[in-house]
Amino acid sequence: MKHVLTILLVFMIGTVQAQNRLRPTVDLTLAAGSSQATFSLVGWHQWQLGRKQRLSIGVGPRITSYVGNKKDFWTAPASIARGSSTPFLVVLSSQETQNWDTLNVQRPFVFSMNAAVQVAHQIGKRFRAGFNIDLVGFSVGRTSAAVFTSDGRQETTEAKPVPFNLLLTGDLDQGSLNSEFFVQYRLKEKWSLRAVYQFYFVEYKTNTSIQQLPEPNDRFRNKANLLGIGLSYSLN
Amino acid sequence: MKSKLLWVLFTLLFISCSKEKETATDISNDIIPANSVELYDGDFVSAAHPTSGKARIVSAEGKWYLVLENFSTDRGPDLKLYLSSNRGAAQFVNLGNLKSTNGQQVYAISGMPDPKEYPYVLIWCQQFSVLFGVARLS
Question: Which stretches make up the DM13 domain (chain B) (predicted)?
């Protein structure tokens, strides 16, 4: 675990210092919601576009640490949870709530490492607003006691984080993926303060297919809505 | 202005954090429903923590109640009272938070679960999946 962190931090620092023509930044965010919170750190390559260079597009690695207490996770696979599992259409399809079972994970803790993209726009001299989202990566975390509930029947089980993360639109997504809408205010030349709405998509799986109907399933998802604050530091 | 903004954001950040309720060490004795009829009973034995007393299921006016008598167990986090299919809470009916680690307690049982299907009364730490004590009903 320690080696993975070291490699990732070296990669992040290298990434943001690689090219002077870019606008490299490091963002740090703390966000919290109902009985859950995240800490995230990301290094962005950012290309400034347009005649006035107000628009920027960035890519970079992001680590997100998620912790919760007794959080409900619901049936994750789109083939069960939604009316359609076609990419993009899944977002608009009906929610098949009669197929949803609940996994209450007692002490969820997930550490995800993902490649992310960001789009942002400069507003005036001091404000900047934008959106970013994780694309692909992997997760590690704590195996936790969990309570599975289906049709009023309850079972005790164990669950662990889904190891592989992939953005595939809507409920087709897999694993733990972070996304943010943010507004930032430049405090000093290099430092900005960020206000963030964060949507963190986190998944746990049970050791066996504990859900049997309408089809066997071991993957459960929590969609965390969080508000946070952060700092952004410009490296040039 | 900046300090006010920071204050609002910090408040939003931590407003949802709340401390979990701890089990009381003692309560005034719960009242056993009048004219109740005993259906099942069993004695607690210790598991991970010393636990003693008696568990009884009684019926009164068409409702079922679980009564703990002369009950005692250790304090612990997130203690629940389960009617369970086995000692590992493989399948269970959650009767709620344990009211107290000592004394007589009465819990309403909703749905009248079949005691043949759920013959064990568990004192169960839900957060860490630890069995404190168990009574087998007969």
Answer: 35-138
